[in-house]
Design brief:
This protein is of the alpha/beta class. The strands form two sheets. The chain has a six-stranded mixed beta sheet, with helices on both faces. A four-stranded mixed beta sheet has the order 4-6-8-9.
Length: about 230
């Protein structure tokens, strides 16, 4: 479930499945993409993306969905399109990360323009432990954000990174008690200037070919390890 509330120049979009650590199903992905489109249609300068509850920002893809996939490549492409919608939004999207960001939750945060963590935030790409990996654009965006060396260590180890290390890596730009005032601070600036600055900073070569290759690799691994993932869930 995705909830949206508008408050002046900041629109808050909340991933609201705290009982499942805000894990995302295909319907949630669609709702998130629609929420971003609605913010742009309303010419909202800043979107503040957060997770409900105190346990997690977003645990990534819902594992019940992952284990039941009939077309894993299409699912990866679905997540990539939603992450691209976040990255390409006219609004500045600020991720407020409190609690765990895992897998697709990390990738969703990477698609945001600004990532702000609380001291309780943690990050990991644990898919390699099950024979998979994050395939919502993470292999494209992660090295761009933190550099290739840090990206390799983080993604290949599957280890959990706390907020302090995430700040050192450049995975987040600030660690604060409450990330929302950062979104409000950005929203005090002129919307047209924000839009142009974001556009120029995001102007890079087309990543579509790399994302297609990412989705294809995810599908191959899913076919190989889906039964193991399902067994591990039992």
């Amino acid at each position: 479930m995705i909830r949206t509330t508008a408050d002046g120049r900041v629109r808050t979009v909340t991933i609201d499945r705290p009982a499942r650590r805000n894990a995302l199903r295909p319907t949630d992905l669609d709702a998130l993409r629609a929420a971003i489109a609605e913010a742009d249609a309303a010419e909202t300068p800043v979107v503040y993306l957060r997770g409900a509850g105190e346990d997690a920002f977003c645990a990534g893809a819902d594992l019940d969905t992952v284990t039941a996939l009939s077309d894993p490549e299409a699912f990866a492409r679905h997540g990539q399109r939603v992450a691209a919608a976040v990255a390409d939004a006219d609004a500045v999207v600020v991720a407020g990360i409190d609690g765990a960001a895992r897998g697709g939750g990390v990738e969703l945060a990477l698609a945001c323009d600004v990532r702000v963590a609380t001291p309780a935030a943690t990050f990991a790409e644990p898919g390699v432990q099950f024979g998979l990996f994050g395939a919502w654009g993470g292999t494209v965006r992660l090295p761009r954000v933190v550099g290739e060396g840090e990206a390799m260590d983080f993604a290949l180890s599957g280890r959990v990174v706390d907020a302090g290390e995430a700040l050192r890596m450049g995975l987040v730009s600030r660690v604060v008690a409450d990330p929302r005032p950062v979104a409000e601070e950005i929203a005090e600036n002129r919307p047209d200037a924000l839009r142009v600055v974001k556009e120029r900073l995001r102007d890079e070569a087309d990543d579509d070919a790399r994302e297609r290759a990412e989705a294809e690799a995810f599908a191959r691994l899913h076919g190989r390890y889906a039964d193991d993932i399902a067994a591990d869930r039992e």
